[in-house]
Design goal:
homodimer, 377 residues, two-stranded antiparallel sheet, nine-stranded mixed beta sheet, 2 domains, alpha+beta, Creatine Kinase, Chain A, domain 2
Chain lengths: 377, 377
């Protein structure tokens, strides 16, 4: 165990833009549809005010208490800690793009609209894999997140359970025998657990069946959100499916329902839509996928949205075996690297939006050309 | 002189799809803007009824008289003759796509709506260059057309004048000392001459200045039409600019105005719009041109309209020196080969619209890849 790492005070990023975010690598069970399985627990320290009512001094104290425990509990081989009120805008953007912190946490805003950039808050993450991350002083004192590639809620749950136990040995969590874990927002009371799957559903989108899946999910109290969670748009046909309520059902029931019933059903729907497209509209599908490669390898200007959309098409082409020489890992990595923060990190300087469109197109071109050459060789 | 060639009665096309249509080769003066200069004369035989009033027997007689004169006057090294009332639909389509006959002539329709496929009518053309063609029994007994690559009205006019003289030695044309040559439609009376330039004006289109040029042209009694003349849409930003009236101005005045004043002005406008784009919107222009190449070299399905549009972008890229490895002649030839008739000719069989979209994409892909490899080598 190489022990804790801290990275604040300088311009050094959480991880190199090229490594980390293991969940984006396209591995794992059912990875053709499920990018990642994520479990999040909301925990609060007993005897301390919930965030909306905590003073600045109290927030500092909470931060200090959590910091030492998180960094010294052996939660991972290496843990990175970053105090966000001391971090630069660029660092915070990178963390959001890697799904390590929420957009709210980056801004220091609580859901009641209070707070700001200077509010004492932090994020800890296991590096370089980033499979564990802990937001401190977001909406709750602690938001623990474990993420795995593919459909792997049981594994993620076991891991987060161990983290939860380790922290609870040294921290006293607010808990009511009647309601369960107490949280700032009532929707998280109870288990305090949110389970989210990041899904790639391009075929359901194309066949128009996605709306049916969304309605069915809502009927089961599941929310369907965009690539960056609450309030974000679906980028490139990636959707987050997660539970809405945490009260009244144990994590286990929730998790088993998702892992063994609901997600296998969604996976079957998406695969059947892909099979239908390959059967009835093969030419159109091939055309679409090859056009995406054509644009990605030739365009000189590209927005994040377009790049995500085209990479999504290419991902579909790879998993449907239309594209043979293109590397799924390279495509998945590009989904991260084309985001504004990562792009500037790769280039090594801050860029205007117009410059980013040029740099993004250049990056995508060079990476995909290399990837196809490797794939073809 | 190898003498006349006739090609009716069989499936043999006017020329091979790969040769001919010299004007599309991208050579000639000011060829970056002017694809071709075309002069057309309308002539009618004296003592015979104009087409709308000619009986079937009279049309047969006119056709016979013209046929022997056209094929025996030494107008070109080799003249091809095709009787259109005996030709297949495929043969007629090829001729329209090569701009050797009008759409009306292909259908055997006069502008008054009478006529039909069985009306006796023909086309003669010099082969393989196709620089001279003569429609017999279109709206007038004879429509003589000479076409040259680039801005070359003086040369085209000299050539057509020689053809006109040669024919007039053996045919008696309807002529009034007061009005000039008499034609079926009053707009052609006088010189009977129409001069048309085929222009590539993508930059004026992009900068929105094309409308100004169109209005200015109309003020000078010039018509701006699409790629296939009257009633056709502008395909790929190609426009035909031609005179509307033939009465009251000698061919010479008309021709000099076009060749020395009006077209040089349009050419300057287009070039200045290109320079402006290269100066102010270089990134956007490069992006657009490279995207066009990306789609042309990757798509699996493509309509004629899209192909024309993308080839037009590529042509712009070549003349603006954004694309260095792509051959202008290959691009120009593709503009012909992607048309439905030529496409089926190249493939060697009749195809449904859906099959054509696939075949067109395949053809374009293979030709452009070969062309870039050659260009890069």
């Amino acid at each position: 165990m190489s022990g804790p790492t801290e990275s604040n005070g300088g311009a050094r990023p959480a991880s190199s833009p090229e490594e980390g975010a293991e969940w984006l690598r396209g591995k794992g069970k059912d990875a053709d549809v499920v990018l990642s399985s994520r479990v999040r627990l909301a925990r609060n320290l007993a005897g301390r005010p919930f965030m909306p009512r905590a003073s600045r001094d109290e927030r500092e104290e909470i931060l200090d208490s959590c910091r030492s425990v998180i960094l010294q509990s052996g939660l991972a081989q290496r843990m990175m800690w970053m105090a966000l009120h001391l971090a630069s805008k660029e660092e915070r953007t990178l963390l959001v793009e890697r799904h390590l912190i929420s957009q709210q946490h980056a801004r220091g805003r609580l859901s009641d609209g209070t707070g700001g950039l200077k509010e004492p808050r932090a994020v800890a993450a296991s590096v370089p894999d980033e499979r564990l991350s802990i937001m401190v002083n977001e909406e709750d004192h602690l938001r623990i997140q474990v993420i795995r590639a593919g459909l792997a809620f049981e594994e993620a749950y076991q891991a987060i359970d161990a983290v939860d136990d380790a922290l609870e040995q040294r921290l006293d969590f607010a808990f009511s025998p009647r309601f369960g874990y107490l949280t700032a927002c009532p929707t998280n009371v109870g288990t305090g657990a949110r389970l989210s799957a990041m899904l790639h559903l391009p075929a359901l989108k194309m066949t128009g069946e996605l709306e049916k899946v969304k309605r069915a999910a809502q009927d089961m109290s599941l929310a369907v959100r965009g690539f960056y969670g609450e309030g974000s748009e679906a980028a490139g046909d990636f959707y987050q499916l997660s539970n809405q309520t945490t009260l009244g059902k144990s994590e286990h029931v929730l998790m088993h329902e998702l892992e063994r019933e609901i997600l296998p059903q969604v996976i079957r729907y998406e695969r059947s839509a892909r099979a239908k497209l390959l059967d009835k509209r093969k030419n159109a599908l091939e055309d679409q996928v090859h056009r995406a490669i054509g644009l990605l390898t030739h365009a000189r200007l590209m927005s994040t949205e377009e790049a995500m959309h085209l990479l999504s098409q290419v991902r579909l082409g790879i998993v449907c075996e239309i594209l043979k020489g293109t590397d799924l890992a390279a495509v998945s990595r590009l989904m991260l690297l084309i985001q504004p923060g990562h792009l500037q990190q790769v280039i090594g300087q801050s860029l205007t939006q117009e410059q980013r469109r040029t740099a993004r197109a250049t990056l995508v071109r060079s990476r995909l050309k290399t990837s196809s050459r490797k794939g073809a060789g």
